[in-house]
Write a structure and sequence with these properties.
By secondary structure, the protein is of the alpha+beta class. Helices cover 58% and strands 15% of the residues. Strand 1, helix 7 (120-133) and strand 2 (138-145) form a beta-alpha-beta unit.
């Protein structure tokens, strides 16, 4: 998910506050829970986006949903978001916090799609390739199985993508065959 500039500003503010209070890891765990909970509950998203439901009711609902599961700083932050009318951005801000955390700690996410689950050897090769390309960064692999690739792997790190899938090669062959260079003699 792309994080909007407004959501990222809120996330950076929360990161700075957490750094001042020495609660970066605790807030990170809380924001992981918040992002996952909002993503998994369409009714909660509808409630957060609703202009009809008043802010105090939204705070009560969020208090019941997250009560005792998130720390005081994250709870107060969500209350501020509701008061400022930014509660619809809660999931995006929580994901923005994760992004800010990864930047702060030199962590890169490598999105890996493969036709079958990666073996330990293939996982190590992908990780090594990423570390060779981005020295000094810690690499975290986010693996997804996508049978439509037929075989091979697609690796995405930031804006860079390496597509070594069979479906891509078949597509390239299809395109080459469609460029029929044959000109019949009349």
């Amino acid at each position: 998910m792309n994080v909007s500039p407004v959501a990222y500003r809120y996330a950076r503010s929360l990161m700075q506050l957490a750094q001042e209070k020495g609660e970066v890891e605790a807030v990170r765990e809380d924001m992981l829970l918040v992002a996952a909970t909002v993503a998994a509950n369409p009714d909660l998203r509808i409630m957060l986006n609703s202009p009809v439901i008043k802010a105090d009711m939204k705070n009560k609902v969020l208090g019941r949903v997250f009560g005792g599961q998130i720390g005081r700083m994250a709870e107060r932050f969500t209350n501020i978001l509701v008061r400022k009318g930014r509660e619809s951005m809660l999931q995006e801000i929580a994901e923005g916090y994760q992004h800010a955390y990864r930047i702060e700690h030199n962590i890169l996410m490598a999105e890996v799609r493969s036709a079958i689950p990666l073996t330990d050897e293939a996982r190590a090769q992908v990780k090594q390739m990423a570390q060779d390309r981005y020295p000094g960064k810690s690499i975290i692999l986010n693996e997804t199985v996508d049978p439509s690739l037929i075989g091979g792997v697609v690796i995405r790190i930031g804006d860079e993508q390496i597509d070594a899938s069979v479906s891509r090669r078949l597509s390239d062959l299809r395109r080459k065959f469609s460029e029929n260079p044959y000109i019949p003699e009349i």
